[in-house]
């Protein structure tokens, strides 16, 4: 058997079968590094998309919102969340094309008028992917007086990871999420219940 | 002097009338013109639905917005830029060529090239063993074919005969 194998092998000096040319090392490194980078990006993207809604107690990152013409808060046409430290912030996401938003619009306005004199609570409306003429029509229709502005580039809604409209987030005096309502408030009393507990603290 | 004033006034009035007439004749952009822009955009609310075929009220509003902008003389690129600013770059059917978006344009062709290379290597390796194991010929370092020695072939044939 051993003899056979030696006799089959070509003699010294006779042509050898060509060796397989391997891919250069630097190409291998680039390919593997690229693949790893791509997978990391995909992993981050997946992680972000599967984060789900915000959790009560989450500290919210600062964000700014520019208001529609005619709306102001503390003399400013643009506000940052950090401006409201020490106050309760009610942030309502809405859109003119959203029928459930209409359901709660009157409750929101009524609640704002109730808390406005106290100065402890601030209401802000963020108009989510909307057209301005229709948004203005909506604000006029429901006589909404608290400051509202377009969520330009959906930056604020992405921060809050909203899943639709309406959604309302109540942020406490320390900038932490204290309450969230996914969908419309069923009554004005529900809004009061969510806010009153924070004011009494 | 007085005569000049009346000439200027008459020219001014004529210009105003002509402008008003031209404004009145500005055609309302057709549905086709609106859809030509709308199909380059995606509904910001619905998942993966081009704006031209989206049936929601919100999409109807956005198409009307496109019509208004076209009537105002905006170009398709200006409208797309406006939509990207208002609703985010995700509404564009073609992501802007910047930042990480470049991956969308670079990765698929690169993967395609890698695939073609792997296929090429696979086909090459399927062919090579046949030629080298049969010992009919081989390749020297310069890449030219070298005839396999007769002695070697004779030996193989002898071995095969022995086995039979």
Task: Give an account of the 3D structure.
The complex is a heterodimer of chains A (201) and B (164). With 201 residues, chain A is of the alpha/beta class. Chain A folds into two domains: 29 residues; 137 residues, Glutaredoxin (3-Layer(aba) Sandwich). Chain A is 38% helix and 17% strand. Chain A has six helices and seven strands, in the order ααβββαβαβαββα. In chain A, helix 4 links the parallel strand 4 and strand 5. The termini of chain A are far apart. Helix content of chain B is 64%, strand content 4%. In chain B, strands 1-2 form a two-stranded antiparallel ribbon. Chain B contains six helices and two strands; from the N terminus they run αααααββα. Chain B is elongated, with a radius of gyration of 36 Å. The relative contact order of chain B is 0.06. The longest helix of chain B has 33 residues. Chain B has two domains: 70 residues, Cytochrome C biogenesis protein (Helicase, Ruva Protein, domain 3), CATH 1.10.8.640; 63 residues, no CATH class. The N and C termini of chain B lie far apart (126 Å). In chain B, helix 2 crosses helix 3. In chain B, strand 1 and strand 2 form a beta hairpin. Chains A and B meet through helix 1 and helix 2 of A and helix 3, helix 4, helix 5 and helix 6 of B.
Which characteristics define this entry?
heterodimer, A: 201 residues, alpha/beta, Glutaredoxin, 2 domains, five-stranded mixed sheet, two-stranded antiparallel ribbon, disordered N terminus, B: 164 residues, mainly alpha, Helicase, Ruva Protein, domain 3, two-stranded antiparallel sheet, elongated
* Helix percentage of chain B: 55-70%
Low-confidence stretches of chain B: none
Order of helices and strands of chain B: HHHHHEEH
Query: CATH-wise, what's the superfamily of the largest domain in chain A?
Result: Glutaredoxin
Number of strands of chain B: 2
- Structural class by sheet pairing and helices of chain A: alpha/beta
Rounded radius of gyration of chain B (Å): 36 Å
- As residue ranges, the low-confidence spans of chain A are 1-15
What top-tier CATH class of the largest domain in chain A fits best?
Answer: Alpha Beta
Global shape of chain A? elongated
Q: Enumerate how many helices of chain A there are, as a single number.
A: 6
CATH architecture annotation of the largest domain in chain A: 3-Layer(aba) Sandwich
State the end-to-end distance of chain A.
92 Å
Ends of chain B: how far apart? 126 Å
